[in-house]
Amino acid sequence: MLGVIIGIIISALIIALKNIKSKKFYRDRWKNVNILIIDEISMMTCELFEKLDYIAKNIRKNDKPFGGIQIILTGDFLQLPCVKSSQFCFESEIWGKTIKNTIYLTENMRQSEKEWINFSEVKKNESSCFNNKFFAKEIII
Q1: Alpha-carbon gap, residue 64 to 97, rounded angstroms
Q2: CA within 20 to 30 Å of 1's CA: 23, 34, 90, 101, which one?
Q3: pLDDT at position 75, please?
Q4: Are 49 and 40 in contact (CB under 8 A)?
Q5: Containing domain of residue 43, as a range?
Q6: Tell me, what DSSP letter sits at residue 80?
Q7: Residues paired with residue 131 on neighbouring β-strands, in sequence order
Q8: CB-based burial of residue 66 (10 Å sphere; 0-12 exposed, 13-18 middle, 19+ buried)?
Q9: Which of 5, 1, 89, 2 is nearest to 41 (CA)?
Q10: Residue 61 belongs to some domain of the structure
Q11: 23, part of any domain
């Protein structure tokens, strides 16, 4: 069964790559982009993260992560994970090869109400290595 699923994923990736390569506008955008900014990275699946890497490498003919495109990711991994996956994209096999620098923002700029700030601290303490799978399954807001 796993082989069938992997075959479907690979087929979909090949079709997506052919579609991008066949349209000059999209192909040129991938070839000429210098920086890719992805917001709300915590909502991205491992699968999509790896597909984008594969497409960039293939179109740009460059084996560096994301085909040599500089990647800027923003988001909060203490939020709930992507709906269609039980994994955060930082659990991807290529994450460590792709992401070299991480900047942590420590000052809360969103909430001023003490209850929500304390709630964020509970989430941090409940998680180990940003793994809040337990939290996402056990607490309903």
Answers
A1: 9
A2: 90
A3: 85
A4: no
A5: 34-138
A6: P
A7: 128
A8: buried
A9: 89
A10: yes
A11: no
The string of pLDDT tens digits covering residues 64-108 is 999 999 999 988 877 766 777 778 888 899 999 999 888 887 776
Residues belonging to the chain = 141
Q: Are 17 and 58 contacting, i.e. CB atoms less than 8 angstroms apart?
A: yes
- What domain count does the chain have? 1
Q: Which residues have a Cβ under 8 Å from the Cβ of 107 and sit 6 or more positions away?
A: none
Angle CA 30–32–34, to nearest 5? 95
Determine the Cα–Cα distance for residues 43 and 82; give it in Å rounded to an integer: 4
Task: Count CB-CB contacts under 10 A for residue 46.
Answer: 19
Q: Is 109 helix (H, G, I), strand (E, B) or coil?
A: coil
Q: Report the candidate in 119, 107, 47 with the shortest Cα–Cα distance to residue 78.
A: 119
In a domain, 108, yes or no: yes
pLDDT tens figures, 41-56: 888 888 889 989 999 9
Q: Find, among 77, 79, 76, 84, the residue nearest to 139 by Cα.
A: 79
Specify burial of residue 58 (Cβ count, 10 A radius: 0-12, 13-18, 19+). Answer: middle
Residue 22: inside a domain = no
